[in-house]
Amino acid sequence: MDTEAFLKRIGVSGYDGPPRLDGLSQLHAAFVDQVPYESVQFQLAPGGPLDPEEAAKRIIAWETGGYCFQLNGTFALLLTELGYRVKMHRGGAETPTRAGDVDASHLVLTVSGLVEDPDRVWLVDAGLGEALREPLPLEPGTAYQEPFNLRLRPSEKTDGWRLDHDPRANLVGMDFESAAAGLDAFAAQHANLSANPDSAFRRLASAFRRKPTSVVVLRSVGLTELYADRIDTSLIENPTDYFAVLADVFHLPLPHLDTAQRNELWRRVWSQYEDFLAKQTS
After folding, report:
1. Which of 89, 99, 110, 128 is the most exposed place for a label (fewest CB within 10 A)?
2. pTM of the full predicted structure?
């Protein structure tokens, strides 16, 4: 990884010193604010890199964000190169339409070795879209990360941990194993989720950005921003506005797409919206 270029990509300059909690928190908040969780990359072609170095090159080039395997894999590489001790774990995220089995459909990170307390372990997750903005200590307890209330407790599904998310979010929670895993443990799920036409990541173009006091979400052409005291919603009705939102709100200018590909992407996301309307009225 070109560490200097990646730090510049997430807006962090002059980063120096041994692994500390304030540094980890700064990197985590910058990463989720500047690198979106997104499935736009899977709308025109299946796949997308699992390898963290390849994913990092795309992120640095401003061509894409990523989803959990790419985001947390890249973040793990960045943290490791900056001196943090990082472990990967098999996990699973629960939503209203997904049970959340701990089946390696989500990649989770834990970090230790901080100067303040080398043995204390921290939950780090830049790949949940609307969840963590900063690390959480890996111990039972609650936390408020505006605009969400979060709870960490022992998992009932595995020997590891459970993150309960705020009920206002689409994410219900996430469970992960305590045992460490290598990147190869996620290869089969990545191949399925990124390439299978029936995968939710192929069927819906979405993007999430975890801002300091809100979460902004794009699903097909529906834009939502959730704050502590309100929810703002709007509908994107033309391709000019759609690509402007991707570039300006989600840091996805998509320079690698030509005019024909942009037209096809717009056709696809508008079709997804029409399908949604049809189901609502059926």
Report:
1. 99
2. 0.96
